[in-house]
Write a structure and sequence with these properties.
It is a single chain. This protein is α+β, with helices and mostly antiparallel strands and 191 residues long. The chain has a domain at 77-189: Alpha-Beta Plaits (2-Layer Sandwich), CATH 3.30.70. Helix content is 58%, strand content 28%. It is built from two helices and seven strands; from the N terminus they run αβββαββββ. The protein has helices at 5-102, 140-152; strands spanning 107-114, 118-122, 125-138, 154-155, 160-161, 166-176, 179-189. Helix 1 (5-102) packs across helix 2. The longest helix has 98 residues, at 5-102.
């Protein structure tokens, strides 16, 4: 069976129209996608400077936070050590106070000031050194016992002392009839 020329032309036109419709639909969807991508690109390009500025601000904030964290971490052990040293000093004073109260005497640690710990090299060993100034009030005999306890770092009668890794060096003692001001350094081994 042979098709006539008209049928071929109609078939050709149908195929052409179908292909034209397919191409037009594809082109139309691609133009829409292109327009959408172009709009998104414009929005992204407009946001880029803002986001870049925010990134730089956040990086600067992060750097400041890291620096502050490093400074805090460097100071934290010193603060803890000072607190622990202070607890020991109060424990020694309280120990004498407890014993002397029974005899009608008193010994009070009236003030305590500490400096920030600093590294000090002695031979091949580096120590962390905190300086303290303490004021105590009470009976002269008990004040002398307190100073002796600082120097020997143990009172065998009461079984207390400074914690193991610490050592005390008494620098100066200023006595008065009612009390004493003591300047001392507490050494701790740095690992």
């Amino acid at each position: 069976m042979r098709l006539s020329r008209k049928v071929w032309i109609i078939l050709g036109l149908i195929v052409f129209v179908v292909l034209a419709i397919i191409l037009a639909t594809t082109y139309s969807s691609q133009v829409g996608e292109r327009r959408e991508l172009s709009d998104r690109l414009t929005v992204a390009q407009n946001r880029l400077p803002v986001l870049t500025g925010e990134k730089e601000t956040l990086e600067a904030d992060l750097q400041r936070a890291r620096s502050a964290l490093g400074a805090s971490e460097a100071q934290f052990p010193r603060v803890v050590e000072s607190i622990e040293y202070g607890e020991d000093l109060f424990r020694i004073a309280y120990g004498y106070d407890l014993c002397t109260m029974l005899a009608g005497l008193d010994l009070d640690l009236t003030s305590l000031s500490a400096s920030t710990a600093a590294a000090r090299q002695i031979g091949a060993v580096t120590y962390s050194v905190s300086s303290f100034t303490i004021a105590i009030a009470g009976n002269v005999d008990n004040i002398l016992k307190f100073i002796d306890a600082l120097c020997t770092q143990i009172d065998y009668r009461l079984a207390w002392s400074f914690q193991e890794p610490w050592s005390v060096g008494v620098n100066t003692v200023t006595m008065s009839p009612t009390g004493a001001t003591i300047s001392l350094d507490i050494y701790a081994y740095r690992r």
